[in-house]
Automatic annotation (TrEMBL):
Xref: InterPro entries: AraC-bd (IPR003313), Homeodomain-like_sf (IPR009057), HTH_AraC (IPR018060), RmlC-like_jellyroll (IPR014710), RmlC_Cupin_sf (IPR011051), Tscrpt_reg_AraC-type_HTH (IPR020449)
GO MF term (any one): DNA-binding transcription factor activity
Lineage of producing organism: Bacteria, Pseudomonadati, Pseudomonadota, Alphaproteobacteria, Rhodospirillales
Keyword Ribosomal protein included in the entry's annotation: no
Keywords: Activator, DNA-binding, Repressor, Transcription, Transcription regulation
The protein, known as: AraC family transcriptional regulator
UniProt keyword S-adenosyl-L-methionine present: no
Length: 252
């Protein structure tokens, strides 16, 4: 992205493919960024939260926000970099967004546009339309808050990467050297919800890469400690507003 820093254009597009398991180290951009994954699942994390982006969705990352990116499955990524004054108020928070059919086609076209395109020609019109469409993208509930306290934050990150239904509050307390009362009070103070509520949401988000890879809902449900697939599906829909089936393929 540093090569685009001095390019006098409001929007620049870039296409990059990444292998399964690739990690992009913590970094920041001078421009706002819209990530779009044609395939695979992406997890971005900042000191304040984590966001899971399934296939065919997008993620808005404001300029200046330090973020790390982890990729699950082979990811065909298309990125837009926008001057910070183009999107208006982004409240300095990452967001996962829905990508319309029109926006998908615009993104595919945009990566073929040269960085210093003719703003008065067809390429300039394409980028101007993209700026209009970005502001219409709906925000999706695919974020998970993380605590500020370093040891607790790292424990939360580790759980999100490899959730287990068998760990209890007492297990976390032992690991962190905290009393149960101190742990529950600190967790709610920093996260704004109980440990049980946060763990449910973390498990649902952690299921997204497995769903995108085509794993059976029954297998995922049992691994996450649910008694049956229906119970998992009900919790999934309550948290994300959609069924697991909606996240199983990349052609939605």
């Amino acid at each position: 992205m540093s090569s685009f820093r001095e390019v006098p254009r409001p929007v620049i597009a870039l296409g990059t493919d990444y292998p399964d398991g690739h990690v992009i180290a913590p970094h920041r951009h001078d421009r706002d960024q819209l990530l779009y994954g044609m395939t695979g699942v992406l997890m971005a994390s900042t000191p304040h939260g984590a966001w899971m982006m399934p296939p065919q969705r997008g993620m808005l990352i404001p300029a200046g926000v330090i973020h790390e990116v982890r990729l699950f499955g082979d990811v065909k990524m298309r990125s837009l970099y926008l001057r910070p004054d183009r999107l208006g108020d982004t409240d300095n928070q990452c967001k996962v967004v829905g990508i319309s059919s029109l926006m998908r086609h615009l993104l595919i076209e945009a990566v073929a546009v040269p960085a210093e395109y003719d703003m008065a020609g067809r390429d300039g019109a394409l980028m101007a339309l993209i700026e209009h469409e970005i502001k219409r993208l709906p925000v999706l509930p695919l974020s998970l808050p993380l605590p500020e306290q370093a040891a607790l934050r790292e424990k939360c990150r580790a759980f999100l990467a490899s959730p287990t239904p068998h760990e209890t509050i007492d297990d976390w307390c032992d690991h962190l050297g905290m009393s149960r009362r101190s742990f529950t009070r600190q967790f709610r103070k920093e996260i704004g919800s109980s440990f049980v509520e946060w763990r449910q949401q973390a498990c649902i988000l952690a299921a997204l890469p497995r769903l995108a890879a085509g794993e059976a809902v029954t297998t995922i449900a049992m691994d996450l400690g649910y008694d049956n697939p229906a119970a998992f599906s009900n919790m999934f829909k309550r948290i994300l507003g959609a069924s697991p089936r909606d996240y199983r393929t990349s052609d939605v």
